[in-house]
Every structure is written in C-alpha cells, then in structure tokens.
Automatic annotation (TrEMBL):
Belongs to the TRAFAC class myosin-kinesin ATPase superfamily. Myosin family. This is Unconventional myosin-Ib. SMART domains: MYSc (SM00242). Coiled coil: none annotated. The keyword ATP-binding applies. ATP binds at residues 103-110. It comes from Eumeta variegata. Pfam families: Myosin_head, Myosin_TH1. SUPFAM superfamilies: P-loop containing nucleoside triphosphate hydrolases. Residues 884-1108 form the TH1 domain. GO terms for biological process: actin filament organization; actin filament-based movement; endocytosis. GO terms for molecular function: actin filament binding; ATP binding; microfilament motor activity. InterPro entries: Kinesin_motor_dom_sf, Myosin_head_motor_dom-like, Myosin_TH1, P-loop_NTPase. Signal peptide: none annotated.
C-alpha cells in the first residue's frame, strides 16, 4: 500500500478496499491518514474516527449540506456521511434510524454526536421558521445538558458523565419538528469527590467565572473556585502511568457561561434560571460546611458545624431552616448545648420511619460529613433530572402526530480507576450492553445471510462460544445486577453480596472476599470495591431531610422534593439502569440496523499529532472493528424485503410492463433487471434482496426520485389544466353577464338621448304598458328587483376585477418606479400612489416594510467597526435627541474617535510597552482622543489638553510630551452634565475619595481620582502639580456629544451600570474643597472675547456662569 494514491489521496479512504486486509495494513492506513490530519476512514457504511486532540477546520453548514445532497463515496470520509445517510433514510423512506457512537473515554464520542446533530439540524432546518426554531431548541438542549452533565477528567477535557439518547423527529419535509432526550445514570458522586487533576461539572466553574459581580453578590459567592471544597481536587484515581495524566483546561468558562444562560433562555427557563443558579450556589456553600466532634455528657461523640456562617448563608439563599437542616445532618446548631441524640444523618428510603434516618451508632463528624455529601449528590442529581424534563417539555413537538425519528446515542466509554465503585460498575455495564448491541448487529447480519441461503463463510468473533458478558451482568437473579438487587431488598451486608456472586461460576466473574470482585470486560479485567455498594444501590433519601428541603421558600427546591412518600419501594439504581438499557436493546434489535461511528483514542495523554499504535491496536481488538470490516467487505450494505422493494420501486416500470405474478423475489428480480444498474450489485435470497454498495442504493433512490418528479409534473399539469378550464368557464359566464348588462344600459341611454327614434320609443312604451298591464303589481316588483340584483352583481364583479387589476399592475410596476437611490436608509422618495382611495393603506404598508428591509440590508453590510459606530450613534440619539440643541447637527457626522491619530503614535505605543511590558496595558486601546479645552476651575480660563478615553479610564495628557496630567478610572465617573443649549461644555462628575487616596502617587506625581485602582493604570511618569487637581472635570470641545457618548459607554461596560446623564441649565459641581453652581445663560448672540468658542466661562465665588 503506497503512501499516496494516483489521485493524490492519502492512504485508502474505505478500509474494505485494503489489499491485503489485515490488522497491520488497517493500522498503517489509519496512521498514515492521521499524520495528514485525515481523521475519518470508511469501513463500509460505518465511519472510524481517530481523535486529533485539537481543533480542525472540518465542519461547516455548507459541508453538511453537500454531504446530504451528494451520493455516498463521492466525497471524502466524514462523520457527516453517516449522519446524511441516516437523515435521507428518515426523510425519503420514512424509516427510523439510530446513529450509535462508540469508543473509550477521550476518543471524541461527544464531539462526534454533536456533529451528527448539527448535520441533521442544518439539513432539515434551513427552511421554515418553525423548523429553524426546533433545530435551535435541540442545539440549545445539547449545550445546556453539556454544562450540567460534562466534566474534565484526566483522559478527557469534556467527558460526558451521563449517557444520552437524543431522538429528533422529522416531518414530511425532513425538517426537525421536535425531539426527546433519554438520559442514563449521571455520575453524581463527582459532585462531592473530585480526583486530583480533574474538575467537577462544568456549570460550577462557568458560574464563578462568568457571572457578573452583582449576581455573585446576590448568590453570596466568590470568584475563586478554590474557595469551595467540592471544586478542589483530591487524590489521583486513574490507574494509568503518571505521564498519561492530562491537566484539564479552564479556558473559556466565562464565555461558556454566556452560552449556558442563553441556552436556558432558549429552552424556556427564563423564569426558573434564577432558581437553578441559587440551587448551584446552595450546593457550593453547603459543601463548605465542616464538622468537628462534639462530645456528649455520657462520653459519646456527635458532630457540630465549625463554620456556621456557611450554613446560614446557604440556607438564606433557598429559604431553608438552618437549625432543622443541621438537625437532620446530625450536627447541633450553635445555640443548642448538646447535639441531637438519636438523629444521625444517614439517607434512607422514604418508606422508613420518619424519626430515624440511620443506625443509632452513626454519630460523629465523619457521619455528618458523609450525610452532607450524599445530600449534595442527591440534590444535584434531582436538579439534573428536572432539567432534562424541562428540556423535553420544550423540544417536544406541539402536536401528537407520529413521525419517524433520527436517534443519536452517546453512551459512556469503558473506564477503570484505582478504586472502582458502584458508579463505575453501572457505567461499564452500559458500555458492555452497547458493545453487545454493536456486535449483535454483525452476528444477526451473518445469521440473515445463512437463513436466506446466500453463499457465506461465517466470520467468528472472539467470544462466540461464551455467554455474552452483558447477560452475565444483568440476565437472571444470579447475575451481578440481580444479586445486587436481592441484597439491597433484603438489607444484606456487602460481604454477602460478594459471596453470592460466586453462584454464577463464570471464569469472567471472580469474587475476591471480603469486599472485592473482578469482572473480565471486553476491554480487560477491572476490579471493583463492594464497600458500601448495597447502600449506594438503594439510592434513597432520608424522609426528615426531604421534609426540611420541602419546606424551603425556593419553589424549585420544593419541586425537587415533592410531598408525600411513595407507597412503593423506589427502584434501585442498577435496576433503573437495567430497565433503560433493556428498552434500548429491544428498540435497536427490532428496528433497522444502527449507523455506526467508531471513535478511537490516538494518545492516552491527548497530545496532538501523537499516534500510539499499541493503544489503537488494543481498541481495534477489544471493539471487534476488524471483524466488522471483514463482514462489510464480504457482505452487503442493505437487505430489503422483496415485497417492500417492489412496492417502492414499481413506479420505475411502465404501467403496461408491470407484472406482479409470481413470488415477490422473482418480481423484484425482473424489476431490477429492467433498471440501468449492474446486476452484480444485487443478490437474491428467499424473501429479501441484498444490495452490495451504498452508491447503488443511492442510484436506485435517484431513479425513483426522478420518476416521482415526472409523475408529479404530470399531475400538476393535469390539475393546472382543470383549474384554468374552470376559470375560463367562469370568466366566459361573467363576460356574458357583463355584455347583457352593458347592452341593456346602452339601450336605455340611447332611448333617452336620441330624438329621431321618438316614435319607436312611444311605441315601445305603449307596448311595455300593455305588457305591464297584463302583469300584476307584485310580478312587476319582483321583475324590477331581479333586474336590480343582476345589475348590482354585475357592478360588484366589474369593480372587484378592476381593483384586482389595479393592485396587480401596482405591485408589478412598483419596483421599476422606485428611485435609483432607494436602497439608502436616508432616501425618503417614494413613487406616487395611482389610486389613493383604493391602494392608500397598501402603499403605506409597503413603504414601511421597504424601509425596514433596506435598513436591515444596510445593517447586514456592517463590519464590527461600523456596528460599534452605529451603537454609539443610537446611544447618542437616546441620550440627546430632543434634549440638546446641537444634536441634529451631529447626526450626519460620523464618530471618528481618534482625531489626533494617537493609536498610530510611536510615542504612545512605546509608553504603553514600557508601562506593561508583558501584558496589554489597560489604557492601550484608545476609544477617543482629541485636543480639548480644560477649564481652570479657579478663574474659568481654558487651557488646551489632550483628552484620551480608553476602555478603562479618562486621561488628560500634555499634547506635546504625552505626560499624564490626570487619570480618572471609569468606575469613578458617576455622572455627566451638559446644558440643553448648543454649547460645547461637558462636566464629568468624579467620585470623591477622601484621605490619602486623593494624594498624588509618590513615585510618579500623577494625581488619581479613584484611590488604589488608579496606581495600577499608571501609563508613564509625570511630575509636579500634585494636590490641586481633584474634584470634577470641566471640558470644552467641539465634539462634546461624541465625547459624552463614548465616555457613557466606557463607564457602562466597566461598571455594568450606566452613569447618570444630567441635562439642565443649572447644576452643581465639586471643585475639590468647594461645591460650585454652574449656570448656563443664553445671550442671544456671539459673545465678545470668546475667541471663536461658542461659550465663555466666568467664575464668581461659588458660581460659574457659562455665557452661551
């Protein structure tokens, strides 16, 4: 096998074409393609994906649409190909499909499932708005569940800690109509136990990193994640070598929090998002509660909370009685002298006695800490289940119509820790069941070939002669799950569970008394600890603890703990997982074969461009990938029932040649032979027809689609002919009615005007009189009424058709009558309406719609700079429109910002580099820079200065030397004051900081207005002028509205709240040691001595007059 084929492709795109097909050639082909960043390889109808451990530009909406529109194998291997094939089967053949994504932890299963969902949404949601809304809801649901159900582990930075089956319902057009999420066991023990180098669930870190200061203050949280016990790592748990440990990343939590909150709004959780965040804060705060031993009088030990303030703050968030909560946890409140006796905090099933939550000897600090951890894990697990239910309520279709579904299964991978408990047993049990489903597809396929009488040499699997391990785990009362259920129901100890495992007598199940047992999984042997496994399997909650949380003021917390105990014993954790997996197995076994995406982990440490051949070979063997490739190479890609094939493709034959006599297989054979397809691509069994290549199936569907299009065209042509004929008949009848009415009207007019027919008129009148004389008065009235009705109907018909013609001509000619510059939003020209009485309202509506459309097109042409300028202009309009006289003159002038080109100044860049050599300086980005007049507060004189507004502060510099004269941090600006006149004066009100914070910096001489916050922003050294420049700033500039607007936005972005904008003719300002009243006086003309300025300032004691 060469390095590159003749066409320039690297390796072989489809593994079934390898010659020879061995494990070594297969592995070499994967490695060769991986080195060239080609991570996908076909294996027949399946796709093998090797995790690149870095981002590659392989995904886009246009590429997904291309895979949906093109035939299989016409484009390079991609996971889009599997998703597109499944999507076309659902859309065209109305068959439910399932995409199963398998692989170890860290192999990229979550990303592959997300890409499959993206392909389905893009392929079907590009049309109607309803479909687009359903697609957005499905995507938002994935984002939300990823935040609450994923965590960073040593093997995977975004490991899914729960299994997920997403069903996407497609309507007859192929557009997403809704969906449903089925979740499998969440690893809730991670909430209180995080291994070294790992992280808890993503949402905790996103909340602390992305929440604004006001939200953190309301939730009583701190920004530092290390302040919370459940977010601090513990001891290492992975059994791999130390060099395989991967430190999880913390980048992007702030941005991901915005995505998570947006997803909550999308799925309709706007009203409850605050409750969800309070629940997370409650878990974080309660996790910090520490317990210390508190001795009884009789010498026994109890527990007491050492940091009661954490309990108080946590309970205040959700409205829980703190003393009652500490009581059920086994810790005495600080005001009680002795801890509560006989109230240890073990969590049990709700059918137990209300007053006893555990054994009487469970007192102590360790017992209270264990109860706290179990309560936190249960609380988070119920919150996650509630979120899944809320997501399902939002994304489910609005009607109850039955539609075919496209399912995407993302299940756990097999994992092995140093200490494997019940959670790892259930996770690996699910991985075993999925592996059994995948290999079962290949086994059933071989059985089908043999049953249909096809020539077939069976390809053996490694465990063909043994009972499936999945059945060993869950089939029968003596299985692992059955034994665990029996021990949980009878309340037997953990050692009894280990002893009872030996009844199965299977070499793959090895009990290791008293508290260990080993299972030989498909990926290797794994040893489990049975300590506490029976108690964990019960998965109950103490009735007293539930009652305390049920009495909370938080509605969401009350919803998680509903009223009343259940009359039935709650299902054990392993039994619930067994029921879900049994339903999944039954569904996949009874439907079409699933589409497979086999994910492989290239490197144990997730290092990019590292290909561990030994690790890949181990995954190929344990996942039976080579057997799957060999079956696909020798077998067929599709098996269709002969009756279904004839019923679907009989339209390809002419009506005269359609014959259904004989067996269905013979009819299907005659049908296929008449098609322009190779005969070698088909094989015929006893009841089914087998198709060799997916491309042949595509061509067969393309032939049927072309035939259906022709038939639909014939039907449309016949319908249009019928419609036009009926319309012509109605028009002919209307024409005759109009002609009769017109002739009658013309005859009446002729009788009245013409004088040369007077005699005939007299005769006609006499004749009519004689005729009328023979008619009764009632008949005459009926005759006149009928004539009047016919005339009115004719007039109405004529008017209706005239109005329709007028509207049609108006609409068809409107575009050509628009002015040449009609695309400009400033264009007010509009063609005259030809008939204002009939078309006036329509003309007004179209003019308004056209204006909104061209404004939309104008906004779409903006780049980021133009959008920022438009935002500034809109902000200026909100602030100064109808409030400032010179605002109309500023509308047509764009905001330039840097009028002195300070950003391009080498001195400015050099000064910023000197001030912050290793990081971007906070004043580096310039928003506004111009030479302004700084008003001297003592006498009102104006001195030039360079005003610079950065993203963090307002600076006044010397224009030549760029020496900082004053720096005002953005958080210190709380008000901007202007007059309603057409002047150019702006007053910037700065918060006063008494004491030493008002002193200039001892080293630089620069005077700060905000205390400690200013020293960090020092640009470069200045000297002198210390102590006198405190208080508010009075500036005079010809760009006063632009300066005020930009400063307004900078303060809003820095603080989170906008400063107050005061527009009045008189207001007060702080001039350091004195409060001065600034009054604006309109003089009605140019002010003498103003030197071209629009205003002159005069200081008189405690007043400063501005003559405008």
């Amino acid at each position: 096998m060469g390095e590159e084929s003749a066409g320039g492709a690297v390796g072989v795109g489809d593994a079934v074409l390898l010659a020879p097909l061995t494990e070594d050639t297969f592995l070499h082909n994967l490695q060769l393609r991986y080195k060239h960043d080609i991570i996908y390889t076909y294996a027949g109808g399946a796709v093998i994906s090797v995790n690149p451990c870095r981002r590659l530009a392989l995904y886009s909406a246009e590429l997904a649409r291309a895979y949906v529109a093109r035939a299989p194998y016409q484009l390079p291997p991609h996971v889009y190909a599997v998703a597109a094939t499944a999507y076309r089967c659902v859309r065209d053949r109305r068959q439910p499909q399932c995409i199963v994504v398998t692989g170890e932890s860290g192999s990229g299963k979550t990303e592959a499932a997300r890409v499959c969902l993206q392909c389905a949404v893009v392929a079907g949601g590009g049309g109607a708005s309803a479909a687009a809304g359903a697609g957005v809801g499905l995507t938002a649901a994935g984002t939300l569940l990823e935040a609450f159900g994923h965590a960073a582990t040593l093997r995977n930075h975004n490991a899914s800690r729960f299994g997920k089956l997403l069903d996407v319902e497609l309507d007859f057009r192929g557009d997403p109509a809704g969906g449903h999420v089925t979740h499998y066991l969440l690893e809730k023990s991670r909430v209180t136990g995080v291994a070294e180098g790992e992280r808890n669930f993503h949402v905790f870190y996103q909340l602390l990193a992305g929440a604004d200061p006001h939200l953190l203050k309301r939730l009583k949280l701190q920004r530092n994640a290390g302040s919370y016990r459940i977010l601090r790592s513990g001891s290492p748990v992975w059994s791999d070598a130390p060099h395989t440990h991967v430190a999880p990343t913390t980048d992007g939590d702030e941005q991901h929090f915005a995505f998570t909150t947006a997803a909550m709004r999308t799925v309709g959780l706007e009203g409850t998002s605050g409750g969800v965040l309070r629940m997370l804060a409650f878990i974080l705060k309660l996790g910090n509660v520490e317990f210390v031993p508190a001795p009884h009088i009789d010498g026994s030990l109890a527990a007491r909370a050492s940091n009661y303030y954490e309990v108080s703050e946590a309970c205040a968030l959700v409205g829980v009685d703190e003393e009652a909560l500490l009581g059920v946890l086994g810790a005495a409140p600080p005001r009680s002298r002795t801890p509560p006796v006989g109230s240890p905090p073990l969590l049990e099933e709700p059918h137990h006695d209300e007053g006893v939550c555990g054994p009487a000897n469970g007192e102590g600090a360790a017992w209270a800490a264990a109860a706290r951890d179990r309560l936190l894990a249960t609380l988070y697990s119920r919150l996650f289940v509630w979120l899944v239910g809320a997501v399902n309520d939002h994304i489910q279709p609005r009607d109850l119509a039955r539609r075919p579904t496209l399912a995407i299964l993302d299940m756990y991978g097999l994992e092995c820790l140093e200490r494997n408990a019940l959670e790892q047993l259930v996770i690996n049990y699910a991985a075993e069941r999925v592996q059994h489903i995948v290999t079962g597809v290949a086994r059933r396929e071989q059985e089908l070939y043999e049953r249909e009488g096809l020539p077939w040499q069976r390809i053996p699997f490694a465990d063909d002669r043994q009972e499936p391990l999945a059945d060993l785990l869950d089939n029968g009362p003596d299985s692992v799950v059955g034994t665990l259920r029996e021990c949980s129901a009878r309340g037997l100890p953990d050692s009894a569970f280990v002893q009872r495992l030996g009844r199965r007598r299977d070499p793959r199940l090895l009990p290791l008394p008293p508290h260990l047992f080993q299972i030989q999984h498909f990926g290797g042997p794994i040893t489990y600890s049975a300590s506490g496994i029976v108690d964990k399997n019960r998965d109950g909650v103490c009735a007293r603890a539930a009652a305390v949380l049920r009495a909370a003021r938080e509605p969401l917390l009350r919803l998680l703990f509903p009223d009343g105990p259940s009359p039935r014993r709650p299902a054990a954790l392993a039994c619930r997982q067994r029921a879900l997996l049994a339903a999944l197995s039954q569904r996949l076994a009874g439907g079409p074969p699933p589409r497979l995406v086999r994910c492989l982990r290239a490197d144990a440490a997730l290092r990019p461009r590292h290909f561990d051949a030994h690790l890949i070979r181990h995954q190929i063997r344990t996942q039976s990938i080579m057997e799957m490739v060999q079956i696909r190479r020798a077998g067929w890609c599709e098996a269709m029932c002969a009756r279904e094939l004839v019923a679907r493709y009989i339209v390809l034959k002419a009506r005269s040649a359609r014959s259904t006599s004989g067996s269905p297989v013979r009819v299907a054979r005659r049908l296929v032979r008449a098609l322009p397809l190779p005969a070698a691509e088909f094989a015929y069994g006893r009841t089914k027809v087998f198709i060799r290549s997916p491309r042949t199936l595509w061509e067969l569907e393309a032939l049927r689609w072309a035939r259906v299009v022709r038939l639909v065209t014939v039907v449309q042509r016949a319908w249009r002919r019928h419609r036009e004929r009926a319309h012509a008949r109605r028009q002919h009848q209307a024409q005759k009615t109009i002609a009769r009415a017109w002739r009658r009207h013309k005859a009446e007019c002729t009788q009245e005007v013409s004088e040369e027919h007077n005699e005939s008129c007299v005769v006609k009148v006499c004749t009519q009189s004689i005729t009328c004389g023979n008619m009764s008065q009632k008949q005459q009235r009926a005759h006149a009424a009928a004539a009047s009705r016919r005339t009115a109907w004719a007039a109405t018909t004529i008017q209706y058709h005239y109005v329709q013609w007028l509207r049609r001509r108006y609409l068809t000619t409107l575009w050509s009558r628009l002015p040449a510059h009609h695309m400009s939003p400033l264009c007010a020209a509009w063609p005259l309406c030809p008939a204002p009485r009939l078309l006036g309202s329509l003309d007004t509506l179209l003019q308004r719609i056209h204006h909104r459309w061209r404004c939309h097109k104008y906004r779409l042409s903006f780049d980021q700079t133009a959008r920022n300028r438009m935002r500034e202009k809109v902000t200026a309009s909100i602030l100064f429109k109808d409030r400032k006289q010179n605002y109309p003159r500023s509308v047509a002038h764009p905001f330039v910002g840097d009028y002195v080109r300070l950003r391009a100044s080498a001195a400015w860049r050099r000064a910023c580099a000197v001030a912050a050599p290793h990081r971007p300086h906070p004043d580096h980005y310039v928003v506004f820079a111009d030479v302004v007049g700084k008003v001297t507060r003592s006498n009102g004189r104006v001195r030039p200065a360079l005003a610079v507004v950065s993203t963090s502060a307002l600076l006044l510099l010397e224009a030549r030397t760029l020496r900082v004269k004053r720096r005002v941090p953005a958080p210190d600006v709380y008000r901007l004051s202007l007059s309603p006149f057409a002047d150019d004066v702006l007053v910037v009100h700065v918060r006063a900081c008494p004491g030493p914070e008002m002193e200039p910096d001892a080293d630089t001489g620069v005077q700060w207005s905000g205390g400690a916050g200013g020293t960090a922003g020092c640009l470069f050294a200045a000297s002198g002028e210390a102590g006198a420049r405190t208080g508010d700033l009075v500036l005079q500039t010809c760009h006063v509205l632009e300066l005020a607007t930009k400063l307004f936005l900078v303060v809003q972005n820095a603080v989170g709240a906008p400063p107050h904008v005061n527009i009045a003719a008189e207001f007060e300002a702080n001039f350091g040691q004195q409060i001065v009243t600034i009054s604006f006086v309109a003089t009605g003309g140019a002010v003498a001595g103003s030197s071209g300025s629009s205003a002159r300032l005069v200081r008189r004691g405690s007043r400063m007059d501005v003559l405008v």
